[in-house]
Structures are given as structure tokens and as C-alpha cells.
Amino acid sequence: MKHRIVGEVMTRYYNDNVIDDIESRLDIVDVVSETVNLTRKGNRYWGLCPFHGEKTPSFSVSAEKNMFYCFGCHTGGSMFTFVMKRDGVDFKEAIQILAAKAGVKIATAGPRKDDKTAGVFKINRAAGDFYQRYLQSEDGILAREYLTRRCINAQSIEQFKLGMAPDSWDGLGRNLLKKGFSQAELQLSGLIKRNENRDSYYDIFRNRLIFPIFNPRGDIIGFGGRVLDEAVPKYLNTPETDIFAKRKNLYGLFQGRDIIRQSNEAILVEGYLDCIMLHQAGIKNTVASLGTAFTVDQAKLIQRYAESVLILFDGDEAGQRETMKAIEVLSQQGMKIFICSLPDEMDPDEFLNKYGKEEFEDYIKNNRISHIEYKIDRFIRLMPELDLHNKINVVNGVKDDVINLKSELEKDYHIKTLARKLEIEEFIIRQEIKPKGRYSEREGILRNKTEIIRDNKKYANYSIEEKIMASFLAREEHFHKIKDNIGLDFFVQPELQKLAQYYDQLSGDPADRQKQLKTWAAGQGLEETMVKITFALDEEPINEVQLDNFMNDVKRKQNEVFWQNASKKLDSLGNGDFKTLLSFILDFDTALNNFQEGGKA
Questions:
Q1: How far apart are CA 340 and CA 348, in angstroms?
Q2: Which CATH architecture has domain 116-244?
Q3: CATH assignment of 248-367, given 3.40.1710.10, 3.40.50.300, 3.40.1360.10, 1.10.287.3510?
Q4: 430: which of 8, 75, 99, 331 lies 20 to 30 Å off by Cα?
């Protein structure tokens, strides 16, 4: 029986039977094999994960369950999830891709979208061919000379499909009309514009070097154009269309997505040519914004492929300001951010041309700093004098960044950096950085919760918690035994906690509850966790002795946490607070009786 995980989004776009139809015609092993070299071991297939770099296969595919899961990077899901992550598309697009592969005709549940979008893609392909041919023609000599001066070679010209727009009022428009496109269709593409005074149409791009902009699947969605002289504007983009919005796309992502995914880091540069030069030098995890301030949509796009970003903007004041803006946007998404400032206010293109690839790679490796260090240095540099008032401003400027760090080692490092650079005692910085707010009993429980199972013992590829979760999904008596003895509030992993609490609310037989849980999990962003638990059901289950030992460990730690919190609460009670003190004594007496009876406090 195939286990299917599909979010509620499915029914917004397609009839329910579309998913079943696709899955009945396609095998997830075949879909994944287009990207991953799989080897069968037992009832599963294994290979190197395409979503992170590894040397030992940890990527597993189950044909029976119609699922995949990587035990290295913890990515998992259905064939639709695989295509979404591989191609950087949303759920709706993944269905369209797999439907085409399966030969399934899609009937939309809602209003059918107009075919205008497909028409714009066709026009862009034809326009891209036109610009490329013109660049290689006799008339494209000036553009080719310009590219030669910028050290862009023939391989890069082909890889990025660079072209040239003729110095003609309507050269592209006339060409595309001959190919059968209408004026109305060309206007929708944003490549031509109507001149109301002359009652005619003209090309948006004229006498410009052309940079096609691709979506992650490799479709041309728009164009960027650069002048070869000093005319203004220097750069021009396709206006917003049904398929293109520059705030939502990144240049070079299609060419670099696989390397970005494997390295788990994207290098962010400012311009088209910087991006092309880094790719040409073999640094292919590079993308560029599209002539606008870096946006939240662009940050989310990178986040589909990597957790870390190295910002490599120009070193001049304008570049530094844009770096600060990008830091704020990326910080909001919780990404790891590093910055490298090239010497002498050079841009990446200039540095590569002057010093070469090897020195460039050494420089960005040895001169990258965290975004917090960058902000500290910039704040200090901009201060007219580092008096007490300005020192406070520097601390306040990075305070939230430091507090939000997950690693205590990183926090300690940045606190020491602040103390050293501001010449302030370290303990004072710690007091300023420390989050404000009183201790609460609930917070104490949460802080101690991670110690309930200190080693979180591993069973093959699974933690004890994951095996426990799989155990009570597989065996109803285990679920009730766990719930009655230690409750369901013991999970360290918040994803498992959510699954357990929702499962407890469901009704019906165990199989029906599991099905409901899987559907709910997909809609809550918990699909990968649910897939791993489903895979764990195939493994040797937890036995009664292991289950009892686990519950005893949880009880012991729950009791320790209770007594610790009780002691702190007692210390905090004032002598005059008689009613609260009496209530505490009654709770304490009840807990003591439970403890003596062998239960939890």
C-alpha cells in the first residue's frame, strides 16, 4: 500500500484524483533516478543525497511507501516534494511537471488559468534566440569586443545565453511578428511598448547587451539590458509580467542551484557580470540580485537551496549600505550570514581579473566575517568618536542579533569581541546583552526539558524519541501506556511534540488516525518529520523493556525538574504572601504523595 503525503493545497488547484493518477503511473524510484544514482539494498534504494554534499549514501527511497528521506540533511517527502526541492518550484508547479511526465491531463478544480503565461514563455524563448544570433552577427562586433574586454569567454556567453539588442526602433518586434506572434502578445511579454503619439510600437531593449533571466527550471522569464556607452539608464529590466517580477528572482540561480544546494551556501553579488565571472572561475554557487535592493522574496528563494549566504557586494559606500540592507533581510529569515569586503573598494569582477581564481578563493576564505562582526565594525567606523553614548549605540545595534544566536559559543565570541573593541568590561556587555524578563516556572520547564533524555540514544538512524513515536503509532497499547504514565509533553523535538498532541486529538481506528496525521503534518510543514517516522515503522520496534526504561528515565527527569522549579518558586515567595504560600504547600503535598507512589510529581 502506498503512503501518500499531500498538503491541503492540492485541492485548491486540482481534482483529488490527479494526485492518485500521477502516483499510479509513476514510480518514485524512477523520478529520483533521473537525478540520483540509486542502489537497491533490501526493500529500499540508497544513493548520495542531491540536497547536500556527502560521500557516504544516506539518501533512501521507498517504492512501497512512495517516499524518500535523507538521514544526513533530514529532507524527505513524496515525489512531489522531491521535484519541488530539486527544481525550486512550488507544489502546484511540481504537479504540472509530474503530470506532464506521467501523461496525466490536468483538470483544475478552480477557474482555469489563461494560456497567456505559456505564450509569454514562447515569446521569451524566441526573443532570446534573436538576441543571441544578433550578438554573433557582424553587427554585434561592439558587444563582443566589450565582453572580451571584460574577460567573458565564449563558454560563458553560451552558458548564460548572452545576446545583443540591435540599435533599431522595432527590430525585435518586427522579427517576432513574422514568427506569428501578435502585437497584443508581445505587449504582454513586456518586450515592446506602444507609442501613443505615433500609434506604433517600439522595442524596450535597443542597442544593449542582453542578459536573459531564467527561473530555477531554466525557462527565460525576463531580460536585463546594459548599455555599451555612457547612456542612461545604465541597466534596464523587463517590466513586471505574468511570469516575471525582479524582486522575486535571482540571476545565476538556474546555473548554480545544484552547487548551492551541495555547498549549502550561496554567494550573493550585485551585478550580472560579477556573477558570470565567478561562475566562469568555477565558483558556481553565485547569484546576483536584479538591480534592486535585496528583497525578502529573494532571501526565501535562496533559502530553498542553502542555509548560509556570503555577501560579496562592492566595497564602496553604496555597496556597504546595500550590504547592511541585505543583512537585515536575511536575518529576518534566520539564515547564516557572512560578509567579505574586497580590498581597495574593488568589485569581484575586478579582483578576479587582477589576481585570478586561486587568490580570490583564498581571500574570501580567510577574510569572511559574520554579519555581527561586520555591523560592529561599520558602526564603530561611522562614529565620529567612541564616547559612552556611541558605545551604547553600538551594543544596541547588534544586541538582538547576538541574543538570537542559537550557539552559546557564538554568543560568547561576539560578547568578547564587543568588549575588546569597545574597551568595556566583558561582564558589563553580558549584562547589556542578557534578555530582559523574569524567570517563570514554564520557562524553567522548557529549559530543562532538553535534559529529560541526556543522550537521546540512537537506534540506527533514529533517536529514541523517534522510535517511541513510531512505536505508539504502530501499537495502540503503547500509545495509551505512554500517555497514562508520562503524558505526551516529554518530547525534546518540537516537531514530534506537535505530532503527538495532534494525534491525541484524533478519533477513529489507528490506521485512519495515521492517515489524518499525515495529511495534517503536510499542511503544517512537518512532512519531513512524518516521513522519517513512517520509515522508522519498518525498523525493529522498541520492545517492552526499552519502553519501560525510557518512561522511567522521563519520570526521573520530570521529578528533578519539578523539585528544581519548586525550590526556585519557594525562594521567590515573600513572607507576607500567605495565600500563595499556602497554595504552594498544598501542591507540594500532592506532588510528594504522587512521588512516593512511584508516579511523576
A1: 10
A2: Alpha-Beta Complex (3.90)
A3: 3.40.1360.10
A4: 331
Task: Give dist(CA 370, CA 337) in Å, integer.
Answer: 6
**Residue type (1 letter), 270:** E
The percent of the chain in helix, strand and coil, each rounded to the nearest 5, is 55, 10, 35
- pLDDT > 90? residue 198: no
For CA atoms 426, 431, 434, 440, the dihedral sign is positive
Give 236's strand partners.
Answer: 225
Average pLDDT value for the chain: 84
- Helices (runs of H) and strands (runs of E) counted in the chain: 28, 18
CA distance 343 to 350: 11
Distance CA 531, CA 466 (A): 11
More confident call, 273 vs 584: 273
Read off the C-alpha cell for 168. 533599431
Dist CA 434 CA 415 (whole Å): 10
The C-alpha atoms of residue 156 and residue 592 are separated, in whole angstroms, by 74
Per-residue cell: 357: 581564481
Domain boundaries of the chain, sorted by first residue:
10-102, 116-244, 248-367, 376-433, 439-601
Alpha-carbon dihedral sign for residues 597, 598, 599, 601: positive
Distance CA 127, CA 482 (A): 64
State pLDDT tens for residues 111-147.
Answer: 444 467 888 999 999 999 999 999 999 999 999 999 9
Strand order in the sheet with 235-237: 163-165, 208-214, 220-227, 235-237
> Helix 544-572 to helix 476-486 angle, to the nearest 10 degrees?
20
pTM: predicted TM-score of the whole model, two decimal places: 0.70
Is the separation of the CB atoms in 387 and 424 below 8 Å?
A: no
Q: Say whether the peptide bond before residue 166 is cis (omega within 30 degrees of 0).
A: no
Backbone angles phi, psi at 207, to 5 degrees: 55, 50
Q: What is the distance in angstroms between the CA of the first residue and the CA of the last residue of the chain?
A: 44
Name the 3-class secondary structure at 70: strand
Cell 512521588 belongs to: 595
Q: How, if at all, do strands 76-77 and 67-70 pair?
A: antiparallel
pLDDT tens for 463-486 read 778 888 888 888 888 888 888 888
Joined grid coordinates for residue 237? 529590466
Cell 500517555 belongs to: 483
The domain over range 10-102 is classified in CATH as 3.40.1400.10: no
Nearest to 500 by CA among 525, 468, 477: 468
Rounded Cα distance, 293 and 301, in Å:
15
